[in-house]
Design brief:
The chain is mainly beta and 99 residues long. It has one helix and four strands.
Length: 99
């Protein structure tokens, strides 16, 4: 079953104590509207339309992020972001290394 979310709703910023967010199987293109989710430890965005890993530098508690089956071609931006708490990064099913 597919959902129709095209972006992460801004209302998620109201949930500062949120620790898990699962938005798999949508049409989300950008990582946004999560700046205030400082307690987020797990973020699942499998099977969306994300092309660039960005805007996660404020997610200081993030341990697990799943971005599998998106349209990601590079992890350059995430390697420039100090992710000291990150333990697991799921990227299978993307276009890494393909030009």
């Amino acid at each position: 079953m597919t959902n129709e979310l095209k972006m992460i709703p801004n209302q998620f910023n109201l949930f500062s104590n949120l620790d898990t967010l699962i938005l798999n199987n949508n049409k989300i293109k950008f990582l946004s509207n999560l700046d205030q989710c400082k307690n987020l430890t797990r973020l699942e965005l499998r099977s969306n339309r994300i092309e660039i890993i960005e805007n996660i530098d404020k997610l200081v508690s993030l341990k697990f992020i799943t971005l599998s089956c998106n349209l990601i071609k590079s992890i350059a931006k995430i390697s420039d972001t100090p992710m000291l708490t990150l333990e697991e990064l799921g990227l299978f099913g993307n276009y890494l290394g393909n030009k």
